[in-house]
Amino acid sequence: MAEDFDLAVVGGGILGLAHALAGARSGRRVVVIDRDARANGASVRMSGLVSVAGHPTGAAARRARRSREIWGEVCAHAGVRVDHEGLAIVARRPEAASVLAAYAATEPAPGCVFYAPEDAHALFPQFRGDIAGVFWSPDEIRVEAKSALPKIAAWLEDAHGVAFRWETAVSAIGDGALATSQGPVRAKCAVVCPGDDLRSLFGDRLSSLGLTRAKSQMMRVRYDESFELPGAVSTDLSAVRMPALQDAEGADALRARLEAEQPEHLQHGVVLLASQSADGSLVVGASRTLDATPDPFLLQTIDDLILDELAAVFGKRPKHVVSRWSGTYAFSADRPVVVEAPEENVRVVVAASGFGASAAFAVAEETVAELLGACAA
Ligand SMILES: Cc1cc2nc3c(=O)[nH]c(=O)nc-3n(C[C@H](O)[C@H](O)[C@H](O)COP(=O)(O)OP(=O)(O)OC[C@H]3O[C@@H](n4cnc5c(N)ncnc54)[C@H](O)[C@@H]3O)c2cc1C
């Protein structure tokens, strides 16, 4: 006998959970269906940084702030520990210092500050390398993704009555029902959050959007001496990727210098993002290699590039690499979030950037409000 729901969400990653929350908060009966036994995609492999700064004025900046707000509520209610708050972008070169200082003074970066080298060294003694200043954003939070996802799912089930169907693959959606490997599930409307599976559901639609997949290498490392990160930490390599800085005055000069001095980092899409777990170890990444079918091989060259950048900030490489892994996510050069409407009552939502988890809750709120309006009409 098919079950009846108002909203079915395909995908139990962070985007799927965010849509389930938005549906449940609207008073709807929601089911989340995932082919795996637990979330095992990008959402549990990520660095866990909920990023806020770096968006130009307007919708993107508003969405980032709204999503951060909901992340805060979810962490508090679902018992997810916030490991640290804030993001320090260490400017290793004067070119990075100049674009970051200018951005810190603008309206889309409220609360952000740029510290000149003397102040930066005094405030952040952890940064022992030669630095040209530090951009500080206070609003970012960091969560341990691997444990956060199951906690959020359990909270949605217990506090919001969301039903979960794990180990259940969805093969088709239409006529008010989802065909699954465990039999049909009836739902008035559906949201598909397939991560980087761009072929199984509505593949014809997704194939026309110029999406591809990105593979990212990550490590957990440990230094011999213990020290506390002030927040998440990144460098010039991240600054050139920030959407708000793409056309900023001085960005070309920074790009040119990085091309001359760190061509291998750019070739492998390496940026430094370091965050700290409750046990003091650091999660560090990441690379970005684009391919329709990412290969499964981890390259030592890429690990070395990440560790070199870490050493440039903290004065030396960590003694121990505790673990290594890779993750893949959907990627588009110009559409960080894709929302498609293949049917009146179905939406397909793909986070197509390396910061999809940050935007998840605001995107879900917008999509569910629009979809439930369309379903009710
Ligand atoms: C190494 C790495 C580091 C990252 N760091 C950050 C970060 O610090 N901050 C940030 O904001 N973002 C980060 N990201 C990006 C972020 O992880 C992703 O954008 C986000 O997790 C995508 O969530 P999702 O739910 O769309 O996808 P996923 O987490 O991949 O979930 C998709 C789910 O859909 C299920 N599924 C797909 N098709 C079907 C089907 N037909 N039937 C049933 N189930 C199906 C899959 O089993 C999977 O569980 C990082 C990504 C990686 C790989």
In short:
The protein is an alpha+beta fold. The protein has helices at 14-25, 42-45, 59-78, 94-104, 117-123, 145-160, 203-206, 236-239, 251-261, 263-267, 300-314, 356-376; strands at residues 3-10, 30-33, 49-50, 82-91, 113-115, 133-143, 163-165, 170-174, 177-180, 185-192, 212-222, 232-235, 273-276, 282-285, 289-290, 320-331, 337-343, 346-351.
Structural notes for this entry:
With 377 residues, the chain is of the alpha+beta class. It folds into 2 domains: 1-48 and 144-211 and 333-377, 3-Layer(bba) Sandwich (FAD/NAD(P)-binding domain); 85-140 and 212-331, 2-Layer Sandwich (D-Amino Acid Oxidase, Chain A, domain 2). Helix content is 34%, strand content 29%. The chain contains 12 helices and 18 strands. It has helices at 14-25, 42-45, 59-78, 94-104, 117-123, 145-160, 203-206, 236-239, 251-261, 263-267, 300-314, 356-376, and strands spanning 3-10, 30-33, 49-50, 82-91, 113-115, 133-143, 163-165, 170-174, 177-180, 185-192, 212-222, 232-235, 273-276, 282-285, 289-290, 320-331, 337-343, 346-351. The strands form 2 sheets. Strands 3, 4, 5, 6, 11, 12, 13, 14, 15 and 16 form a 10-stranded mixed beta sheet that branches. Strand 17 (337-343) and strand 18 (346-351) form a beta hairpin. Helix 1 packs across helix 12 and helix 3 crosses helix 6 (145-160). The two termini are 27 Å apart. The relative contact order is 0.21. Bound molecules: flavin-adenine dinucleotide. Residues 6-368 form the FAD dependent oxidoreductase domain. One of its GO terms (molecular function) is oxidoreductase activity. It comes from Hansschlegelia beijingensis.
